[in-house]
Amino acid sequence: MTANHLISQVAELQLLSLRLNSCKCSDDIVDILFEVKTVENPNIQGNEDTERLGGMPQFSVEIYEHVPFDKCDAVTIHDGKINFKVFTSGSVVAFK
Fold first, then answer.
1. How many Cβ atoms sit within 10 Å of the Cβ of residue 60?
2. Whole-prediction pTM value?
3. How many CB atoms lie under 10 A from the CB of residue 51?
4. Tell me, what's the pLDDT at 63?
């Protein structure tokens, strides 16, 4: 798999995540255990080699634990519904 093919797949997943705006939850959510998001740093050059996958140094991961509801960047929770705000590829949220 080439780096360009992988980037194309990531772009497709991002478009898919944009289509999912919310989902219902059957139980009360009492805590956001953690939030993980992938962040791109435009000041770092990516891998230019299209024949080999050598990583994506322009991306990093931010991890937050026990996120207050009003501080969560990825979702809002209202009336038993999880609404996705900024939930890009590589994002993860765990609820209790």
1. 12
2. 0.64
3. 8
4. 95
